[in-house]
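Tip: read the tokens left to right.
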């Protein structure tokens, strides 16, 4: 989808440049900002490498499990179906920690890891559990206390004031995350989105796919 959006935006710029007689300016900016994009990308390597390494050290030192236990009071309300000692807890905790620090690129593999761990608690292959839906809601609008990546991007193109977005970012992400969590909880109570109802619907339609990696005590049977 993003590829289509960029193509459309570039097309509109070229057409506007032709009709306004400023196509040369469009070309100049195209090549100028192409160089800027490369410089910004290279400048982010240090920031991303540092925090990625920090997360790896925390994982090797066992801090992931400690973080998972520290967040247990919150986790049991957001993810009530996860057993206390399941590895999904530490994976989700690390994902939330990376999100709070604003490490967008670092969050991706951690989010995937969390979903993989949660899949072991999913009876099916084609229906997301409530916990998996909650992870997606959190990833869409997670609370960010330190927008590290955004600050690094702003620092690459301006000399001062790069961190002035911290306050607004905290406020907006708290509000967004609150709305997403509440809506996920409310929608999960509707029959149309109920996990067990969806299982029975797919079973009746012959579309149910059983997850062989499920480790719970009540696996599905066709």
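Filled-in amino acids:
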């Amino acid at each position: 989808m993003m590829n289509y959006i960029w193509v459309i935006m570039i097309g509109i710029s070229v057409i506007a440049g032709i009709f306004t007689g400023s196509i040369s300016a469009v070309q100049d900016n195209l090549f100028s900002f192409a160089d800027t994009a490369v410089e910004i990308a290279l400048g982010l390597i240090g920031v991303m490498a540092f925090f990625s390494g920090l997360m790896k050290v925390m994982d090797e030192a066992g801090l992931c499990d400690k973080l998972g236990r520290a967040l247990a009071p919150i986790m049991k309300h957001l993810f009530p179906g996860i057993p206390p000692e399941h590895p999904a807890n530490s994976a989700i905790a690390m994902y939330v920690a990376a999100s709070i620090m604003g490490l967008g690129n670092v969050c991706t593999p951690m989010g995937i890891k969390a979903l993989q761990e949660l899949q072991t608690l999913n009876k099916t292959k084609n229906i997301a559990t409530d916990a998996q839906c909650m992870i997606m809601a959190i990833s869409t609008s997670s609370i960010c206390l330190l927008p590290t990546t955004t600050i690094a991007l702003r620092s690459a193109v301006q000399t001062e004031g790069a961190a002035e977005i911290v306050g607004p970012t905290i406020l907006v992400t708290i509000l967004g995350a609150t709305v997403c969590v509440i809506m996920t909880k409310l929608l999960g109570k509707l029959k149309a989105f109920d996990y067990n109802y969806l299982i029975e619907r797919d079973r009746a339609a012959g579309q149910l796919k059983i997850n062989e990696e499920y480790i719970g005590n009540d696996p599905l049977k066709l």
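Residues 44-205 form one domain. The mean pLDDT is 80.
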